[in-house]
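Data deposition worksheet. Section B asks for the primary sequence of the deposited chain exactly as it was used as input, without tags or linkers unless they were present during the calculation. Section C holds the resulting structure in token form. Section D is free text for depositor observations; keep each observation to a single sentence. Incomplete worksheets are returned to the depositor.
Section A, Depositor: J.P.
Section B:
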Amino acid sequence: MIADKILYNLNEIFCPNDLDRPLRGAEMKEATILKNGYIAIYGGKIYEIGEGDVPEDLVGEETEMVELSGHVATPGLIDCHTHLVYGGSRENEFAKKLKGVSYLEILEQGGGILSTQKATQKASFDELFIKTKKLLEHMMYHGVTTVEAKSGYGLDWENEKKQMEVVKSLNENMAVDLVSTFMAAHAIPTEYKENPDAFVAEVIEMLPKVKEENLAEFCDVFCEKGVFTAEQSYMILKAAQEHGLKTRIHADEIESIGGVEVAAKLKCTSAEHLMVAGDKEIELLAEAGVIGNLLPATTFSLMAESYAPARKMLDKGMAITITTDSNPGSCPTANLQFAMQLGAFAMKLEPTEIFNAVTINAAHSVCRADKIGSFKKGKNADIAVFEAPNLEYLLYFFATNLCTHVFKDGTLVVEERQLRNADLFREEFFDINEAHDQKDKAKKLKTRIPMYLDDLMRAEENK
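Section C:
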């Protein structure tokens, strides 16, 4: 077979072990590191990886050869927990945080999620689309090729749907895959403060529409003191499963109130945060096979000391990931590399454990491990390339983006830290026929067509 494209002379290639399930415990220390490696791509898929000289039978006249000496390649990074679509920002709360006002106190004062709710409800689809697109571009610069994105700043059907439609449209229009999560159970709206059960019932009523309109694959709930109880969380997630949605739960972030027990009982795909999880909770998650999505940048941003006990989780045989929690309040960042570096510096995870966490285990967290997360033959050629002599250097040399190239389905989308082919409608790559096809598709799917697409099409047709 003649390859379409070959990346070669790579210092190292990080190859996670692909066991058709998440890596657990000591398994996360293991991976294959190829030296002086090459990656052959055919039809947007991984065809072959190896060490040393590229085999002659892979190379033809049309094969694109990409020389990458001085670089390390990994599977495309996967950010498996974000709150990406929102209006406004919350830097006005920063001074309060510096003075020691807690996250829950800010929420009780009408700030936090409720503040973002108001800004998101006021924002148009196009405003949210453009804002979120910029965040995704930052993520791509840092080597991310797949992102989970939650709703949860609408808190009513109209605005929750608006957020999920933005995710759906971006997934169709950008060279990054988005996995949508419905999270109307993110906060109790002010008007339901005296009767939160009524809002729980309203969230449950939204679930059939989420499924029917194909707006999300997962459902998540914020199980926390002052937000949703364990009982309410169970009701919502159980109903979500009955409607065919996969489930996650924010649990044991600030206080432990039973969210882990809900995750274990329902066998959720993942439990999020787990900053205050104890031995009993960790054992429950390990036994139930629930992935722990850990968010060290949130602990950092909250100026807290309660980093999730990652080492203890691995000692007890859990599967874990590292992810950003990108959001406007408790973790305003789009830099997964920074979260990974905190995984090393604050959580004492080793480089191999961290890269397994953001590749193969994160792929399992978003239920895409059959397509992404490793260099197994036939998987999508999602590849992140870093300017570094070895894997360890990527965590040792912190707070600096070392990602130089990103390939999505074998197509170069970041080159020398610049976006290229990042989305279908970027003007320098604009194709009027493709645009019309995409617009027709959007109409059939009844999704909103981005404002700038119409502008570009009019400009092209008026030439």
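Section D:
The chain is about 35% helix and 20% strand.
The chain has a mean pLDDT of 92.
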